[in-house]
Amino acid sequence: MDKIEKKNKKIFIPIAEPVLKGNELKYISNCIKTGWISSQGKYVIEFEKIFSRFCGSSYGVSTSNGTMALHLALKTLGIGLDDEVIVPTLTFVATANAVVYTGAKPIFVDSETSTWNMDPKKIEEKITNKTKAIIVVHLYGHPCDMDPILDIAKRYKLYVIEDSAQAHGARYKGRRVGSIGDIGCFSFYGNKIITTGEGGMIVTDNSEWYKRSCFLRDHSMSKERRYYHPEIGYNYRLTNVQAAIGLAQMERLNSMLSKREKINNLYDHLLCNVKGISLQPHAEWADQVCWLYSILVEKDFGFLRDELMMRLNKKGIDTRPFFIPMHMLPPYKTSHDFPVAEGLSEKGLNLPSSIALKDREIKFICDTIKKIKRKN
Ligand SMILES: *Cc1c(COP(=O)(O)O)cnc(C)c1O
Questions:
Q1: pLDDT of 284-297, one tens digit each?
Q2: Nearest CA to 30 among 194, 240, 275?
């Protein structure tokens, strides 16, 4: 599909779209021809190996999606009823939902303006004797400041799970996200940095956790005795067909990441002098990746974020608002306030970020933003 679609003679630039122009079709055809379409097969094994190696982790366990990867990670670490898990309030809802699925309670932490991630300085005050883990989220491709978080985790004996669903390949002080904490979780949903349609993976260096998560993922069936299940397990497996797509995507991940970096740099260059537009911060210790290119629409832009979204939409430019903080959603409502996350959520806007974007399309998007501003 061509990215500028002549829909009713109008331009349409989508926020994201998968690009499947490598060996995807070839590998899927191989699954069909050989009959290996379910969750056993060479692509599953190969994809887990290549992806975990890319992250710098010893083991990879693929899952049916990123939410299940988070759930599996929490179950593997023994988190359950009455436990508490610290999570940022500004994230995609699945981060908190996975905690609730285990019977534990997510405890929210506000964001920091310098990375848009969970503020490490506000974690300690949320720790109780029920706290078992911290889930960090590398939001919009920018890694969290991991050192202070790892330090807190060590002092209070907490596990650290990295929800890296938006940051495949990002580095914190040289180390790939996902491999820094105890377990890293990834999503391969259609709009993520690489996709398998639906899919996910956990990565870890711990061989016990690796074995335990494989066991839980496959109905908790005993290795010694078929159909003997010593506990309640799950079916969270990825199929060989999905892994075939993932493996083909992995072959191009490095070039896709550099294309994303170019997109990010061109946007930054074209928008850095627009009054009222703030760019995503770049910490000096971070090698971030551009998942969805993100800006803040400040007061002095002249239009509110939602007004700008509407006007861009009329020009055929697809955008997304930032996530709504968890504490503002009905299942998670609390009386605490989280001013930084609320401010980011109100002003944040994601612009089209597909690797199929042409430079002229990025220029068109930025020119349109500038034109809208001038109308004010
Ligand atoms: C996409 C995403 C998930 C969930 O992944 P799915 O594959 O859609 O289940 C979890 N956490 C974050 C931060 C995400 O962006």
A1: 999 999 999 999 99
A2: 240
